[in-house]
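A protein record pairs a chain with a discrete description of its three-dimensional fold. The shape at a given residue is found from the number at the same position. Here is what such a record looks like in full:
>
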Amino acid sequence: MVQAIRVHETGGPDVMRWEQVDVGEPGPGEVRIRHTAIGLNFIDTYFRSGLYPSPAGLPFSPGNEGAGIVQSVGDGVAHLNPGDRVAYAGPLGAYAQERVVPADNLVVIPDGIDDKTAAAMMLKGMTAQYLLRQTFAVGPDTTLLFHAAAGGVGLIAGQWAAHLGATVIGTAGSDEKIALAKAHGYQHMINYRTEDFVERVKEITGGKGCDVVYDSVGQDTYPGSLDCIRPLGTWVSFGQSSGPITDFNLGLLAQKGSLFATRPTLFTYIATRDALEATAGELFDVVQRGIVKIELNQEYRLANAIQAHEDLEGRKTTGTTVLIP
């Protein structure tokens, strides 16, 4: 038996329980791993609260990313061996000391990247990769706006986009977060608590607007994000930290300049083994070359996941956070 965080009913952070669970041995195509670090992400709160239903129903363990050591492998697993350091993003269930994971979801952590960094960057880093490299091809001619610039994805995306030569604009809610984002690739920062981000974007871009807006905030930044985009530009809604958008009007895309809109998820972009390896490989490459530095700013014991969720939802965290079993 090992310890894990379990959710028996959805709700606030206090619904999470620290319990003993029986992991079992891996079946065909599966691997049992011992976690050394687990990544904390805002999507974890969506599953805990019930905003996103757990695929396995109730009870379940939250968490979508982690790193650890392979303990045993099931039949048919040829690319992994006991003792390998591995990391993953998905499936749900990372908040546990040990777990069984499909082998095809795991990638070997390269030398030079420690377990905490790997656990902290898989979901957020691969999200930045697909946003900047696949959903919209960012390059030297791109002007972009990234909401929540001081968050885990935002700090990675700022560095990566700056490396690609883009003009990078971000929003954040405090002077401290603005300074942090500016140190991670953002040339222009907007304090959304004291400034009108739509007007500031117009000033920064000389009235032209951005080619693409990356929006993980949701309700609080809609429809303002659409007013920041040039005609024929793209709105990428990839999260909803302030609550879901409930009144989306498709006609607004026409009214505001024949805009393109998409609601992507990482798991679609890494649905095949080849796609996962390519996405993770490019992320590992920019981290190993020092182009992207992973800011590991908070660390909690896994048993204290309630406090971690309270701090995350209270916007008290910056960069990335890990839970230690």
User: Anything to note?
Assistant: The chain is about 30% helix and 25% strand. The mean pLDDT is 96. The CA atoms of residues 7 and 16 lie 5 Å apart.
